[in-house]
Amino acid sequence: MCGIVGLLVKNPKMRANIGELMLPMLIGMTERGPDSAGLAIFGAPVGDDERKFSLYTSETDFNWQKLAHDFLTHLGSKVVSFNQKVNHAVLTTHLDPETVKIWLHEHYPQVHLLAIGQLMDIYKDVGTPAEVAARYDFSQLSGSHLVGHTRMATESAITPAHAHPFTAGQDWCLVHNGSLSNAPSLRRKLQHEGISFETDNDTEAACRFLEWRMREGDDLKTALEHGFEELDGFYTLLMGTKDQLALVRDPFACKPAVVAEHDDYVAIASEFRSLAHLPDIKNAKVFEPSPKEMYVWKV
Amino acid sequence: MESIKYDLAKTPLREVNQFLHSDASVLNGKHIDIQNPNGAHNIAVGLKSEAKVKIHGHAGYYAAGMNQIADVTIEGSVGAGVAENMMSGRVHVKGFASNAAGATAQGGLLVIDGDAGLRCAISLKGADIVVGGSVGSFSAFMAQAGNLVVLGDAGEGLGDSIYEARLFVRGKVKSLGADCEVKTMGPEERKILVDLLARSGHSDVSPESFTLYGSARTLYHFNVAKSGAY
């Protein structure tokens, strides 16, 4: 079991409060996922030639200032901004992702690169959703849309790296409720394509598969059609891109999802109890998405 | 008639359910209103008195499960397993229902005004279910007895491995499951349908617009001619 939540705020006035609106949604999914939680928030974009790198380390006394300093010394590139929260940090720079990846791997192998993008920041950690949300000030977040997850691990370890969202490529993330039975074979197939993995988590296999399909030229819809053919198991998948949220359920609808469409927002959750607090929910169109159908909402 | 109000934003659900399990002498004839259900699971489960319960909003999983005698109305939608294993009484969902609505229900009437999800009436054992909208795939799987009336469409594999339940569908059926076939609607079945339409607020709907599906009964006995296939 796991819980998923998604929120896309259509009313620009409400975007400053997206974190506050979302918080009860995530906490509402605690019973479905008490062991870890995570969130991808799509906020204001950095400059065209800049990229944000969401970093994480399990070392609680990690010297982030030294990392920022070494980055400047070794690469000679200015750090545009560096925002650190507990053991996460978002580093913004002009350098290309490959250079940053290689540098991190060589000099700070203990630092995980959670995400790369122009809009997306990612936070994920172990603990109850309320604890994780408090640790990283989720209630203070602003942005246009977000994807969140509460995890009850069933197939791999409970670590921050195994928590959702998973990412691949840039400004693209995925959360998953369910379990995939063919994740190992999918992973082997992708490894033949030169794709490497950070964890043994089944969702990471689905995430890298879909991102690989899109790099091969599929649009999101075609990639998900390939997903229906290749992914064996139970899943409700919620994906975030720079300007949309997308949702699919497996053909047997084994895992739940409820959607509320309102003039001001679109909210998605595993269960209605995570939507009940949203403003004016009584006037929202609440429905259950059909299996094997793709739902997309644009910002 | 005496009315009792509960607000789930203020009173814990367990307290409300414990009251709903009071002796029939306390509950019979009472109207109980439940405000702010907010998608909570297990509301009004296991009732066994002549109480009338109204849930004002959306309920979560297993709403009015195992119901006996009581009359439960949900003004909004419900999660999975509404009225599962109902024995008698009446459950009315004014919105939509998620998967496995009325699963294994043995008696009583379940009315869903909107759509029902997958596996509606799975292993139905004698209850009546009327769905105003459509039902999802694999509905009435292994349904043994009782009636499922669908005013809309049915998904894939309707009535797979069905026993003696009757399935009345007005719209399109995407596909029939193994051993489920179209049946001729005789006067007896027509009477059952007319009665169920009347009791579920659809007396204006013509029974002639429905097709009856039931068991071809080819799976009832082991077929020695096909023994090589096993």
Walk me through what this model shows.
The complex is a heterodimer of chains A (299) and B (230). Chain A is α+β, with helices and mostly antiparallel strands. Chain A folds into two domains: 2-45 and 124-298, Glutamine Phosphoribosylpyrophosphate, subunit 1, domain 1, CATH 3.60.20.10; 46-118, 2-Layer Sandwich (Alpha-Beta Plaits). Chain A is built from seven helices and 16 strands. Chain A has helices spanning 18-28, 64-75, 97-107, 129-135, 183-192, 202-215, 220-230; strands spanning 2-9, 36-42, 51-56, 79-85, 88-93, 112-117, 120-126, 145-151, 166-167, 173-180, 233-240, 244-249, 258-261, 265-269, 285-287, 295-298. In chain A, strand 4 (79-85) and strand 5 form a beta hairpin. In chain A, helix 5 packs parallel to helix 6 (202-215) and helix 6 (202-215) packs across helix 7. The longest helix of chain A is centred in the last third of the chain and has 14 residues, at 202-215. The radius of gyration of chain A is 18 Å and the shape is globular. The two termini of chain A are 29 Å apart. In chain A, 46% of the residues are buried. Chain B is of the alpha/beta class. Chain B has a single domain (3-217), classed as Glutamate synthase, alpha subunit, C-terminal domain (Pectate Lyase C-like, 3 Solenoid). Chain B has three helices and eleven strands, in the order E-H-H-E-E-E-E-E-E-E-E-E-H-E. Chain B has helices spanning 13-20, 24-27, 187-199, and strands at 3-7, 31-35, 52-56, 71-74, 90-93, 109-112, 125-131, 145-150, 166-169, 180-183, 211-215. Chain B has an eleven-stranded mixed beta sheet with strand order 1-2-3-4-5-6-7-8-9-11-10, with helices on one face. The radius of gyration of chain B is 18 Å and the shape is elongated. The model of chain B has no long low-confidence stretch (mean pLDDT 96). Chain A binds chain B through residues 251-253, 256, 271-277, 286-288, 290-291, and chain B through 36, 38-40, 57-58, 60-61, 76-77, 79-80, 95-96, 98-99, 115, 117-118, 136-138.
